[in-house]
Amino acid sequence: MRIVHDYQYTRPEDQGASVAIGNFDGVHLGHQAVIDLARRSAPGAPLGVMTFEPHPREYFAPDSAPFRLMSAETRAARLEKLGVERLYQLNFNTVLASLTPRDFADRVIRKGFGLVNVVVGADFCFGKGRAGNVESLQAFGEEMGFGVTVADLLETGGVQVSSTAIRDALSDGRPRDAAALLGHWHRIEGKVVGGEQRGRELGYPTANMSIDGLHPPRFGVYAVLVDVRDGPHKGSYRGAASIGVRPMFNGEVPNIETYLFDFTGDLYGATLSVGLVEYLRPELKFDGLEALITQMDADCLKAREILAAE
User: Model's pTM, two decimal places?
Assistant: First the structure.
């Protein structure tokens, strides 16, 4: 998959794709349907996705609470798995934000990338002030020579598939509901960083990862499926993870600490992908370490039972 960041400097091989346009945060079932429609709408054309980095919401409201379901790197990896050949990950800056809908269609879609077809959701808006919509994009396509395909909004189980609905499910501690909308477990990915090694002292050594910049799921303990992406321990594991601020130890910065069942080894610096399967309990503050260890024993036993059925 080739990643392109600037519509003003392109190569011949960047031209002529059929492209799904959107933010694709989470790459959920609705996003997957739009991408599949882009594949089917122009057989023979390279399959592409156009998205923006930073997310426009981050650009216009930089002090807002973290809301992203995945990092740009994780999104790119998942899009590649779906067969996307061209990722037009445009730098969202003052110049791009100031383009009128017509300028966006002309400078980016027509001249910049020479796209043969674009696919958007029925609620798609674009251009300065979000002034452009599906109808105006279709008009520009007829005028400028590119096809426009509109994807219907997707529902499953009576719920509209959206990044907002997924965030709500995660905030409520409902990872299975989030997975039903995503089409996969919600995963937190990143490098293992050094911690204070309290878990090791308690008999539960954990791999610690930052969740900075990501939408925080409900704080508490989860049954998890873990993929170690690289290093000597590369592989798939089961485990239990705690997300939160560690109230037992007066923590302040949220993170995720994952204990891998039946594992021995050093994971510092390795990249982990932690899939949230089931919420077990909220964060608690215990009377002492003995009570904490007893609860951790119970958490891991319950997580093993849950994951045995997966």
Answer: 0.92
